[in-house]
Amino acid sequence: MALRHAVLAALLDEELSGYQLAKAFSVGVANFWHALPQQLYAELARLERDGLIAGREVVQDTRPNKRLFTVTDAGLAELDAFAAAATKPSFLRDDLAVKVQAADHIDSAVLIGQLAERAEIARAKADLFENLLRTMRGAAEEDDFLRHGTRIGPYLTCLRGLAFERGNHDWCLRTIGILKAREAARVRP
Amino acid sequence: MALRHAVLAALLDEELSGYQLAKAFSVGVANFWHALPQQLYAELARLERDGLIAGREVVQDTRPNKRLFTVTDAGLAELDAFAAAATKPSFLRDDLAVKVQAADHIDSAVLIGQLAERAEIARAKADLFENLLRTMRGAAEEDDFLRHGTRIGPYLTCLRGLAFERGNHDWCLRTIGILKAREAARVRP
DNA sequence: CCGCTCATGTAACAGGTTACATGATTTA
DNA sequence: TAAATCATGTAACCTGTTACATGAGCGG
Predict the structure, then answer these.
(1) A124-178, pLDDT tens digit by residue?
(2) What pLDDT digit, counting tens, does each position of B111-141 carry?
(3) How far is the CA of A73 from the C1' of D1 (A)?
(4) How far is CA A182 from CA A85, A179, B9, in A?
(5) What are residue B133's phi and psi, to 5 degrees?
(6) Which of A16, A57, B37, B130 is a good FRET partner for B16, with 20 to 30 A between their CA atoms?
(7) Same domain for B45 and B77?
(8) Residue A37 vs residues A19, A25, B23: alpha-carbon distances, Å
């Protein structure tokens, strides 16, 4: 039951609607958790029912009305309890890694294509994260912001996302290089 | 349905029993996928039923008998098809990241403790991966092994695991440093 | 003799994914 | 005028996790 806490954590810094939350969780920016809109709407309903968040209706003319959610004191207490409990280890689950594991037995041209695709996605995400970080720290130097800024949580998770995507990118490119070198070596050894 | 392919990929290089597979998938070495023993036994049964792997009984005196599994031609074809299909993006799902996201609202002593714990786990895993890599390449230089060695798939996924755990470790330590500096700044600003 | 390793599962439950449904408004 | 955006969900299905079951040998 950790989607709960991910939603609470996301609502700490801004009041959001389900739709806005869904954007934050799916469109790239999901640097600390990933979830689909359907999960989020369901989870918001449960959180509100349990009194951990409170929603207020915002009536709009041109757009459909929306409900903005805030974390309640009970919600904060729940997050405290979550933070104090033992952290579950995080595991890898990546289709691309499975394909690379089988690299010696499958067509390497296909694999190289998929690695290139992933490298590009990783690069785009890294760029996005860099921009987000710049926006968050504003005019301040990074060290200064981290020492004295308010709300560094999102900044810290974004730093992790950035490092992760850079690692991804580098690994894809290196793997492509190795596979190509082997192909060349196989043709004229 | 990707556990299927992860199991197939794991069985490519050695004939394994369910028990041995389970060890490879749970005890640390899960650098390209993670799964529990129960999932694996169930998946092995399905794979055998579908003719993608073949099992042979090995009778043992002192130990209970076991069944060793090998990938069939149909299994290889299935892996080929999987490799050719579009790769699903991989997503982050980490309790610790959720806690860090909420860093501004929860007790930082607790958080620092959990980050230190995770840093230690990451360090241990990185060490393990380094040893695995050394074992895999044997006497050869890394470049040489990667260019001419057989079975580099597992080596490549292990490289990724290593980079991932190092990134994890660095991020945990850096985050701890930042949180401590902020605590100090709050006491005497 | 207690706990660990080998060896294989079943059953119930929680969590995540896919497919589908609706409908107005702005942008290309 | 077609497509994307805003806005919210339901239902069926697939996947992963937790809890439990069994039993022999080996090491401290």
Answers:
(1) 999 999 999 999 999 999 999 999 999 999 999 999 999 999 999 999 999 999 9
(2) 999 999 999 999 999 999 999 999 999 999 9
(3) 50
(4) 48, 5, 20
(5) -60, -45
(6) B130
(7) yes
(8) 7, 8, 36
Give residue numbers, 130 to 189 of A, with CB < 7 Å from strand C.
none
Whether the CA torsion B49, B54, B59, B62 is positive or negative: it is negative
Contact A30 B94 (CB under 8 A): no
Please tell me whether residues B117 and B182 are part of one structural domain. Answer: yes
User: B106 to chain A: nearest residue by CA?
Assistant: A80
In a domain, A64, yes or no: yes
Residue type at A21 in one-letter notation: L
State the alpha helices, DSSP H only, in A12-107.
Answer: 18-26, 37-49, 73-84, 95-101
Domain count, chain A: 2
Kindly state whether residues B106 and B75 are assigned to the same domain: no
CATH number, domain containing residue B70: 1.10.10.10
pTM above 0.90, yes or no: yes
